[in-house]
Amino acid sequence: MAEVFFVFLRLGLTAFGGPVAHIGYFRDEFVTRRRWISDEGYADLVALCQFLPGPASSQVGLGLGLLRAGPAGALAAWLGFTLPSALLMAGAAFSLLELGEAIPAGLLAGLKAVVVGVVAHALLGMGRSLTPDLPRLALAGAALALTLIVGGVTGQLAAIVLGIIAGLAFLRGLAPTSDRGSGLHAPFPRRLATLFLVVFSLLLVGLPLLAAKDTSLGMAIADGFYRSGALVFGGGHVVLPLLQAETVAPGLVGATEFTAGYGLAQAMPGPLFTFAAFLGGAAGLDQGVAAASLYAALALVMVFLPGALLLAAALPFWAGLRANHTARAALTGVNAAVVGILAAALYTPVATTAIHDWTDIAIALMAFLALQVLRWPAWVVVPTGAGFGLAFAAFA
What we know:
Layout: H1 2-14, H2 19-33, H3 39-51, H4 56-99, H5 105-130, H6 134-150, H7 152-170, H8 190-213, H9 217-230, H10 239-247, H11 255-266, H12 275-284, H13 289-314, H14 318-322, H15 325-354, H16 358-372, H17 378-395
Protein backbone atom coordinates (compact mmCIF):
# COMPACT_ATOMS: atom_id res chain seq x y z
CA MET A 1 0.00 0.00 0.00
CA ALA A 2 2.85 2.41 0.82
CA GLU A 3 4.44 1.70 -2.55
CA VAL A 4 1.17 2.51 -4.33
CA PHE A 5 0.71 5.74 -2.36
CA PHE A 6 4.17 7.16 -3.01
CA VAL A 7 4.17 6.30 -6.72
CA PHE A 8 0.83 8.04 -7.17
CA LEU A 9 1.90 10.94 -4.96
CA ARG A 10 4.77 11.63 -7.33
CA LEU A 11 2.35 11.54 -10.25
CA GLY A 12 -0.06 13.81 -8.37
CA LEU A 13 2.71 16.38 -8.01
CA THR A 14 3.90 16.23 -11.62
CA ALA A 15 1.06 15.00 -13.86
CA PHE A 16 0.05 18.18 -15.67
CA GLY A 17 -1.97 18.18 -18.87
CA GLY A 18 -5.41 16.76 -18.12
CA PRO A 19 -7.01 13.30 -18.36
CA VAL A 20 -5.51 12.24 -21.70
CA ALA A 21 -2.01 13.11 -20.51
CA HIS A 22 -2.64 11.31 -17.20
CA ILE A 23 -3.53 8.10 -19.03
CA GLY A 24 -0.25 8.37 -20.92
CA TYR A 25 1.70 8.94 -17.68
CA PHE A 26 0.02 5.90 -16.11
CA ARG A 27 0.88 3.66 -19.04
CA ASP A 28 4.52 4.71 -18.99
CA GLU A 29 4.74 4.18 -15.22
CA PHE A 30 2.71 1.02 -14.65
CA VAL A 31 2.84 -0.88 -17.95
CA THR A 32 6.28 0.00 -19.33
CA ARG A 33 8.39 0.67 -16.21
CA ARG A 34 6.85 -1.23 -13.31
CA ARG A 35 4.92 -3.91 -15.26
CA TRP A 36 2.05 -3.93 -12.76
CA ILE A 37 -0.37 -4.70 -15.60
CA SER A 38 -0.16 -5.92 -19.20
CA ASP A 39 -0.81 -3.69 -22.18
CA GLU A 40 -4.01 -5.63 -22.89
CA GLY A 41 -5.21 -5.30 -19.31
CA TYR A 42 -4.40 -1.59 -19.24
CA ALA A 43 -6.25 -0.97 -22.51
CA ASP A 44 -9.29 -2.75 -21.09
CA LEU A 45 -9.13 -0.73 -17.87
CA VAL A 46 -9.00 2.54 -19.84
CA ALA A 47 -11.92 1.39 -22.01
CA LEU A 48 -13.98 0.54 -18.93
CA CYS A 49 -13.30 3.91 -17.30
CA GLN A 50 -14.25 5.75 -20.48
CA PHE A 51 -17.46 3.71 -20.65
CA LEU A 52 -18.52 4.60 -17.11
CA PRO A 53 -19.57 8.02 -15.77
CA GLY A 54 -16.97 9.67 -13.58
CA PRO A 55 -13.45 11.11 -13.91
CA ALA A 56 -11.81 8.66 -16.31
CA SER A 57 -8.15 9.21 -15.44
CA SER A 58 -8.80 9.06 -11.69
CA GLN A 59 -10.82 5.88 -12.19
CA VAL A 60 -7.90 4.37 -14.10
CA GLY A 61 -5.65 5.24 -11.14
CA LEU A 62 -8.14 3.70 -8.70
CA GLY A 63 -8.30 0.59 -10.84
CA LEU A 64 -4.51 0.25 -10.94
CA GLY A 65 -4.31 0.59 -7.17
CA LEU A 66 -7.16 -1.90 -6.73
CA LEU A 67 -5.57 -4.50 -8.99
CA ARG A 68 -2.18 -4.03 -7.29
CA ALA A 69 -3.15 -4.02 -3.60
CA GLY A 70 -6.91 -4.45 -3.27
CA PRO A 71 -9.24 -1.83 -1.73
CA ALA A 72 -6.43 -0.36 0.39
CA GLY A 73 -4.38 0.08 -2.78
CA ALA A 74 -7.27 1.87 -4.49
CA LEU A 75 -7.53 4.28 -1.55
CA ALA A 76 -3.76 4.84 -1.53
CA ALA A 77 -3.74 5.53 -5.28
CA TRP A 78 -6.59 8.03 -4.99
CA LEU A 79 -5.03 9.84 -2.02
CA GLY A 80 -1.61 10.08 -3.62
CA PHE A 81 -2.88 11.31 -6.98
CA THR A 82 -5.53 13.68 -5.62
CA LEU A 83 -4.18 15.29 -2.44
CA PRO A 84 -1.56 17.65 -3.94
CA SER A 85 -3.95 19.53 -6.20
CA ALA A 86 -6.83 19.22 -3.70
CA LEU A 87 -4.80 20.97 -1.00
CA LEU A 88 -3.72 23.66 -3.44
CA MET A 89 -7.31 24.23 -4.60
CA ALA A 90 -8.69 24.41 -1.04
CA GLY A 91 -5.95 26.87 -0.12
CA ALA A 92 -6.78 28.91 -3.21
CA ALA A 93 -10.42 29.12 -2.10
CA PHE A 94 -9.40 30.44 1.32
CA SER A 95 -7.00 32.95 -0.24
CA LEU A 96 -9.40 34.21 -2.90
CA LEU A 97 -12.21 34.83 -0.45
CA GLU A 98 -10.21 36.04 2.54
CA LEU A 99 -8.09 38.47 0.53
CA GLY A 100 -11.18 39.78 -1.26
CA GLU A 101 -10.43 43.07 -2.95
CA ALA A 102 -6.71 42.76 -2.17
CA ILE A 103 -6.47 40.48 -5.23
CA PRO A 104 -6.04 42.68 -8.33
CA ALA A 105 -9.21 42.78 -10.41
CA GLY A 106 -7.17 42.26 -13.56
CA LEU A 107 -5.87 38.92 -12.26
CA LEU A 108 -9.37 37.57 -11.70
CA ALA A 109 -10.55 38.96 -15.04
CA GLY A 110 -7.66 37.22 -16.78
CA LEU A 111 -8.38 33.92 -15.06
CA LYS A 112 -12.04 34.06 -16.00
CA ALA A 113 -11.32 34.97 -19.62
CA VAL A 114 -8.82 32.10 -19.93
CA VAL A 115 -11.57 29.67 -18.91
CA VAL A 116 -13.55 30.66 -22.02
CA GLY A 117 -10.64 29.59 -24.21
CA VAL A 118 -10.02 26.40 -22.21
CA VAL A 119 -13.64 25.25 -22.36
CA ALA A 120 -13.94 26.17 -26.05
CA HIS A 121 -10.84 24.10 -26.76
CA ALA A 122 -12.25 21.15 -24.80
CA LEU A 123 -15.61 21.50 -26.55
CA LEU A 124 -14.00 21.46 -30.00
CA GLY A 125 -11.96 18.36 -29.16
CA MET A 126 -14.93 16.52 -27.70
CA GLY A 127 -17.12 17.55 -30.62
CA ARG A 128 -14.71 16.10 -33.16
CA SER A 129 -14.52 12.84 -31.25
CA LEU A 130 -18.10 12.39 -30.02
CA THR A 131 -20.17 14.12 -32.74
CA PRO A 132 -18.36 13.27 -35.99
CA ASP A 133 -21.55 12.91 -38.09
CA LEU A 134 -24.84 14.74 -38.66
CA PRO A 135 -27.09 12.56 -36.41
CA ARG A 136 -24.85 12.99 -33.36
CA LEU A 137 -24.28 16.67 -34.13
CA ALA A 138 -28.04 17.18 -34.29
CA LEU A 139 -28.44 15.38 -30.97
CA ALA A 140 -25.81 17.66 -29.41
CA GLY A 141 -27.71 20.68 -30.72
CA ALA A 142 -30.96 19.39 -29.22
CA ALA A 143 -29.21 18.77 -25.89
CA LEU A 144 -27.79 22.31 -26.00
CA ALA A 145 -31.24 23.81 -26.54
CA LEU A 146 -32.85 21.63 -23.88
CA THR A 147 -30.17 22.50 -21.31
CA LEU A 148 -30.53 26.23 -21.91
CA ILE A 149 -34.33 26.25 -22.02
CA VAL A 150 -34.99 24.09 -18.98
CA GLY A 151 -31.90 25.17 -17.04
CA GLY A 152 -30.21 23.84 -13.93
CA VAL A 153 -29.83 20.19 -12.97
CA THR A 154 -33.23 19.37 -14.47
CA GLY A 155 -32.12 20.55 -17.90
CA GLN A 156 -28.88 18.57 -17.74
CA LEU A 157 -30.66 15.38 -16.62
CA ALA A 158 -33.22 15.85 -19.38
CA ALA A 159 -30.40 16.18 -21.94
CA ILE A 160 -28.76 12.96 -20.71
CA VAL A 161 -32.11 11.10 -20.86
CA LEU A 162 -32.60 12.46 -24.38
CA GLY A 163 -29.16 11.11 -25.30
CA ILE A 164 -30.02 7.64 -23.99
CA ILE A 165 -33.34 7.53 -25.86
CA ALA A 166 -31.85 8.86 -29.10
CA GLY A 167 -28.90 6.47 -28.85
CA LEU A 168 -31.16 3.45 -28.48
CA ALA A 169 -33.59 4.61 -31.16
CA PHE A 170 -31.33 6.08 -33.85
CA LEU A 171 -27.65 5.47 -33.18
CA ARG A 172 -27.30 1.70 -32.90
CA GLY A 173 -25.51 1.56 -36.24
CA LEU A 174 -23.00 4.18 -35.06
CA ALA A 175 -22.10 2.52 -31.75
CA PRO A 176 -18.49 1.27 -31.58
CA THR A 177 -17.94 -2.46 -31.47
CA SER A 178 -15.17 -4.55 -30.01
CA ASP A 179 -14.48 -8.26 -30.37
CA ARG A 180 -11.31 -8.35 -28.29
CA GLY A 181 -11.42 -10.34 -25.07
CA SER A 182 -11.03 -8.60 -21.74
CA GLY A 183 -7.60 -8.52 -20.18
CA LEU A 184 -8.92 -7.58 -16.73
CA HIS A 185 -9.52 -9.90 -13.80
CA ALA A 186 -11.39 -8.43 -10.84
CA PRO A 187 -9.85 -9.15 -7.40
CA PHE A 188 -13.28 -9.76 -5.81
CA PRO A 189 -16.46 -11.74 -6.64
CA ARG A 190 -19.54 -10.53 -8.49
CA ARG A 191 -21.62 -10.56 -5.31
CA LEU A 192 -19.42 -7.85 -3.82
CA ALA A 193 -19.57 -5.91 -7.06
CA THR A 194 -23.36 -6.04 -6.88
CA LEU A 195 -23.19 -4.61 -3.36
CA PHE A 196 -21.14 -1.66 -4.67
CA LEU A 197 -23.83 -1.02 -7.28
CA VAL A 198 -26.55 -1.11 -4.62
CA VAL A 199 -24.64 1.40 -2.47
CA PHE A 200 -24.16 3.67 -5.50
CA SER A 201 -27.89 3.55 -6.28
CA LEU A 202 -28.99 4.08 -2.68
CA LEU A 203 -26.83 7.19 -2.36
CA LEU A 204 -27.99 8.55 -5.71
CA VAL A 205 -31.65 8.19 -4.71
CA GLY A 206 -31.36 8.68 -0.96
CA LEU A 207 -29.19 11.81 -0.73
CA PRO A 208 -31.70 14.07 -2.53
CA LEU A 209 -34.45 12.80 -0.21
CA LEU A 210 -32.32 13.53 2.85
CA ALA A 211 -31.34 16.95 1.46
CA ALA A 212 -35.02 17.83 1.09
CA LYS A 213 -35.47 17.36 4.84
CA ASP A 214 -32.05 18.50 6.06
CA THR A 215 -31.22 21.89 4.53
CA SER A 216 -27.77 22.18 6.12
CA LEU A 217 -24.75 23.13 4.01
CA GLY A 218 -23.11 19.76 4.64
CA MET A 219 -26.09 17.85 3.27
CA ALA A 220 -26.37 20.19 0.26
CA ILE A 221 -22.69 19.56 -0.55
CA ALA A 222 -22.98 15.79 -0.06
CA ASP A 223 -26.03 15.57 -2.32
CA GLY A 224 -24.95 18.01 -5.02
CA PHE A 225 -21.38 16.84 -5.41
CA TYR A 226 -22.30 13.15 -5.35
CA ARG A 227 -24.92 13.71 -8.06
CA SER A 228 -22.43 15.70 -10.13
CA GLY A 229 -19.83 12.95 -9.91
CA ALA A 230 -22.43 10.34 -10.88
CA LEU A 231 -23.53 12.14 -14.05
CA VAL A 232 -20.21 13.14 -15.63
CA PHE A 233 -19.96 11.50 -19.05
CA GLY A 234 -17.43 12.42 -21.68
CA GLY A 235 -14.56 14.06 -19.80
CA GLY A 236 -13.58 16.15 -16.83
CA HIS A 237 -14.74 19.46 -18.33
CA VAL A 238 -18.35 18.22 -18.30
CA VAL A 239 -18.33 18.51 -14.50
CA LEU A 240 -18.31 22.30 -14.99
CA PRO A 241 -22.05 22.72 -15.78
CA LEU A 242 -23.04 20.12 -13.20
CA LEU A 243 -21.14 21.80 -10.37
CA GLN A 244 -22.31 25.22 -11.51
CA ALA A 245 -25.91 24.10 -11.18
CA GLU A 246 -25.25 22.73 -7.68
CA THR A 247 -23.24 25.66 -6.30
CA VAL A 248 -23.78 28.92 -8.18
CA ALA A 249 -27.49 28.50 -8.90
CA PRO A 250 -28.46 27.95 -5.22
CA GLY A 251 -26.06 30.67 -4.05
CA LEU A 252 -23.43 28.54 -2.31
CA VAL A 253 -20.65 30.14 -4.38
CA GLY A 254 -20.63 33.34 -6.44
CA ALA A 255 -20.33 33.15 -10.23
CA THR A 256 -17.10 35.17 -10.21
CA GLU A 257 -15.43 32.90 -7.63
CA PHE A 258 -16.66 29.81 -9.49
CA THR A 259 -15.16 30.84 -12.82
CA ALA A 260 -11.90 32.08 -11.29
CA GLY A 261 -11.52 28.83 -9.35
CA TYR A 262 -12.10 26.79 -12.48
CA GLY A 263 -9.37 28.77 -14.17
CA LEU A 264 -6.97 27.97 -11.33
CA ALA A 265 -7.85 24.28 -11.59
CA GLN A 266 -6.48 24.22 -15.16
CA ALA A 267 -3.01 25.11 -13.86
CA MET A 268 -2.86 22.33 -11.27
CA PRO A 269 -1.34 18.86 -11.62
CA GLY A 270 -3.54 15.85 -11.00
CA PRO A 271 -7.28 15.49 -11.61
CA LEU A 272 -9.52 18.38 -12.62
CA PHE A 273 -12.16 17.13 -10.18
CA THR A 274 -10.18 18.65 -7.30
CA PHE A 275 -12.02 21.83 -8.29
CA ALA A 276 -14.60 20.36 -5.88
CA ALA A 277 -12.28 21.12 -2.95
CA PHE A 278 -12.20 24.77 -4.00
CA LEU A 279 -15.98 24.94 -4.18
CA GLY A 280 -16.55 23.16 -0.87
CA GLY A 281 -14.07 25.42 0.88
CA ALA A 282 -15.53 28.56 -0.70
CA ALA A 283 -19.08 27.56 0.26
CA GLY A 284 -18.19 27.11 3.92
CA LEU A 285 -15.67 29.86 4.52
CA ASP A 286 -18.16 32.12 6.28
CA GLN A 287 -18.23 29.46 9.04
CA GLY A 288 -14.47 29.70 9.56
CA VAL A 289 -11.43 28.03 8.03
CA ALA A 290 -11.79 24.84 10.11
CA ALA A 291 -15.38 24.30 8.95
CA ALA A 292 -14.48 25.25 5.39
CA SER A 293 -11.71 22.63 5.40
CA LEU A 294 -14.23 19.96 6.37
CA TYR A 295 -16.62 21.08 3.64
CA ALA A 296 -13.75 21.02 1.12
CA ALA A 297 -12.92 17.44 2.13
CA LEU A 298 -16.60 16.43 1.98
CA ALA A 299 -17.03 17.90 -1.51
CA LEU A 300 -13.85 16.19 -2.70
CA VAL A 301 -14.88 12.75 -1.40
CA MET A 302 -18.45 12.98 -2.65
CA VAL A 303 -17.54 14.01 -6.20
CA PHE A 304 -15.13 11.07 -6.57
CA LEU A 305 -17.18 8.46 -4.68
CA PRO A 306 -19.74 7.53 -7.38
CA GLY A 307 -17.05 6.91 -9.98
CA ALA A 308 -15.16 4.67 -7.55
CA LEU A 309 -18.29 2.69 -6.68
CA LEU A 310 -19.24 2.24 -10.35
CA LEU A 311 -15.73 1.10 -11.27
CA ALA A 312 -15.76 -1.52 -8.51
CA ALA A 313 -19.28 -2.58 -9.49
CA ALA A 314 -18.51 -2.95 -13.21
CA LEU A 315 -15.06 -4.55 -13.06
CA PRO A 316 -16.19 -8.20 -12.70
CA PHE A 317 -18.88 -7.73 -15.39
CA TRP A 318 -16.78 -5.84 -17.91
CA ALA A 319 -16.27 -8.70 -20.39
CA GLY A 320 -20.02 -9.04 -20.88
CA LEU A 321 -20.74 -5.31 -20.72
CA ARG A 322 -18.20 -4.41 -23.39
CA ALA A 323 -19.93 -6.83 -25.82
CA ASN A 324 -23.44 -5.44 -25.16
CA HIS A 325 -24.36 -3.41 -28.23
CA THR A 326 -27.44 -1.91 -26.58
CA ALA A 327 -25.32 -0.44 -23.77
CA ARG A 328 -22.86 0.95 -26.29
CA ALA A 329 -25.65 2.56 -28.33
CA ALA A 330 -27.01 4.28 -25.21
CA LEU A 331 -23.52 5.54 -24.33
CA THR A 332 -23.04 6.85 -27.88
CA GLY A 333 -26.18 8.97 -27.42
CA VAL A 334 -25.11 10.18 -23.99
CA ASN A 335 -21.67 11.18 -25.26
CA ALA A 336 -23.24 13.28 -28.02
CA ALA A 337 -25.61 14.88 -25.52
CA VAL A 338 -22.79 15.92 -23.19
CA VAL A 339 -21.23 17.91 -26.03
CA GLY A 340 -24.41 19.96 -26.02
CA ILE A 341 -24.34 20.27 -22.23
CA LEU A 342 -20.77 21.56 -22.33
CA ALA A 343 -21.69 24.00 -25.12
CA ALA A 344 -24.45 25.36 -22.90
CA ALA A 345 -21.94 25.81 -20.08
CA LEU A 346 -19.58 27.65 -22.43
CA TYR A 347 -22.33 30.19 -22.98
CA THR A 348 -23.52 30.38 -19.38
CA PRO A 349 -21.95 30.65 -16.86
CA VAL A 350 -18.52 30.75 -18.51
CA ALA A 351 -18.85 33.40 -21.22
CA THR A 352 -21.57 35.45 -19.56
CA THR A 353 -19.45 35.70 -16.40
CA ALA A 354 -16.08 36.29 -18.04
CA ILE A 355 -16.61 38.37 -21.20
CA HIS A 356 -17.32 42.06 -20.59
CA ASP A 357 -15.11 44.01 -23.00
CA TRP A 358 -12.57 43.66 -25.80
CA THR A 359 -9.72 42.79 -23.42
CA ASP A 360 -11.62 39.75 -22.15
CA ILE A 361 -12.30 38.66 -25.73
CA ALA A 362 -8.60 39.08 -26.58
CA ILE A 363 -7.44 36.96 -23.62
CA ALA A 364 -10.01 34.26 -24.34
CA LEU A 365 -8.98 34.13 -28.01
CA MET A 366 -5.27 34.02 -27.17
CA ALA A 367 -5.88 31.17 -24.71
CA PHE A 368 -7.84 29.21 -27.31
CA LEU A 369 -5.19 29.69 -30.01
CA ALA A 370 -2.36 28.81 -27.61
CA LEU A 371 -4.10 25.54 -26.75
CA GLN A 372 -5.44 24.68 -30.20
CA VAL A 373 -2.72 25.91 -32.55
CA LEU A 374 0.46 26.21 -30.50
CA ARG A 375 -0.39 23.14 -28.37
CA TRP A 376 0.68 24.84 -25.15
CA PRO A 377 -0.29 22.94 -21.98
CA ALA A 378 -3.09 24.45 -19.89
CA TRP A 379 -0.78 25.00 -16.90
CA VAL A 380 1.24 27.41 -19.07
CA VAL A 381 -1.76 29.08 -20.71
CA VAL A 382 -3.60 29.88 -17.45
CA PRO A 383 -0.89 31.97 -15.70
CA THR A 384 -0.06 33.63 -19.02
CA GLY A 385 -3.68 34.69 -19.43
CA ALA A 386 -3.81 35.94 -15.84
CA GLY A 387 -0.68 38.01 -16.55
CA PHE A 388 -2.32 39.56 -19.61
CA GLY A 389 -5.31 40.40 -17.42
CA LEU A 390 -3.05 42.29 -15.02
CA ALA A 391 -1.29 44.07 -17.89
CA PHE A 392 -4.51 45.16 -19.56
CA ALA A 393 -5.89 46.41 -16.23
CA ALA A 394 -2.69 48.41 -15.57
CA PHE A 395 -2.91 50.23 -18.91
CA ALA A 396 -6.67 50.71 -18.87
